[in-house]
């Protein structure tokens, strides 16, 4: 069974750093991209960026470039999303989602990680 | 601001049919890119409901169907059930954007 399991909810102060994770299981490594999708409470889905697990090729939505870093460890099939200095506006649920090469849809999603940034 | 526009909400009584539209443009749906649909039940992660315009993943009831024409796509739910009350998002690819994977604005389905 394919699963994407994300790290637990986090509560942070503005200016703090954070790295959340998304660990895949139940499938072999090649040919998959992992995307990060933001959902501010009560709002819609926003694609942030993506990483190809096999070679760590990474793409970002321009509004997130420089604001977050996406990385991966292919040996553990884990993708990461990190911030060096959180802002209150980063408060949201962050989902990871899997896309197979040569497709344009996300077939499996993680359960989401709620990040709350508050002073 | 999404490039795929959906109605904020649609509603129907149990057993009725409802449809959700997803309107794009010549750089996404109109360019021939496939449309996919996701269902997000309250408090849960999105789940793939329809892929490549009209295909259902294993386990998705055939009450859900998708179609695409021109610069728009639609999701239909027939025999509406209380458990279908959720948010629904369309998604496609846009060749004009540097963030090419785009989601619709989302539609809440309300079962009366």
Task: Please report the two chains with the greatest interface, counting residues with C-beta closer than 8 angstroms to the partner's C-beta.
Answer: A-B, 24 and 25 residues
How many β-strand runs of chain A? Answer: 11
Shape of chain B: globular
Oligomerization category of the chains in this entry: heterodimer
Number of helices of chain B: 0
Total E-strand runs of chain B: 9
The helix content of chain A is under 10%
Which range best describes the helical content of chain B: under 10%, 10-25%, 25-40%, 40-55%, 55-70% or over 70%? under 10%
Protein structure class of chain B: mainly beta
Our count of helices of chain A gives 0
Strand content of chain B: 35-45%
| Low-pLDDT ranges of chain B | none
Q: Which stretches of chain A are poorly predicted, pLDDT < 50 over at least 5 residues?
A: none
The ordered H/E elements of chain A are EEEEEEEEEEE
The description of the largest β-sheet of chain B is: 6 strands, mixed
N-end to C-end Cα span of chain A: 40 Å
Radius of gyration of chain B: 13 Å
Overall 3D form of chain A:
globular
Strand content of chain A: over 45%
Mean pLDDT of chain A: 94
Largest sheet of chain A: 7 strands, mixed
């Amino acid at each position: 069974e394919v699963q994407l399991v994300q790290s637990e909810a986090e509560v942070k102060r503005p200016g703090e750093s954070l790295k959340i994770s998304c660990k895949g299981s139940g499938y072999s490594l090649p040919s998959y991209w992992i995307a990060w999708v933001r959902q501010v409470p009560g709002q819609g889905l926003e694609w942030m960026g993506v990483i190809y697990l096999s070679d760590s090729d990474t793409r970002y939505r321009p509004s997130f470039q420089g604001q977050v870093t996406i990385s991966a460890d292919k040996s553990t099939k884990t993708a990461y999303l990190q911030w060096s200095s959180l802002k209150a506006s980063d408060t949201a649920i962050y989902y990871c989602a899997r896309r197979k090469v040569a497709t344009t849809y996300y077939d499996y999603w993680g359960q989401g990680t709620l990040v709350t940034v508050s002073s | 601001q999404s490039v795929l526009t959906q109605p904020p909400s649609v509603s129907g009584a149990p057993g009725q049919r409802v449809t959700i539209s997803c309107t794009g443009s010549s750089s996404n749906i109109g360019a021939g890119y496939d449309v996919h649909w996701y269902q997000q039940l309250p408090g849960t992660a999105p789940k793939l409901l329809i892929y490549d315009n009209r295909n259902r993943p294993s386990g998705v009831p055939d009450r859900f169907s998708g179609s695409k024409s021109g610069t728009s796509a639609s999701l239909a739910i027939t025999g509406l059930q209380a458990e279908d009350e959720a948010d629904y998002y369309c998604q496609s690819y846009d060749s004009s954007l540097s963030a090419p994977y785009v989601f619709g604005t989302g539609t809440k389905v309300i079962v009366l």
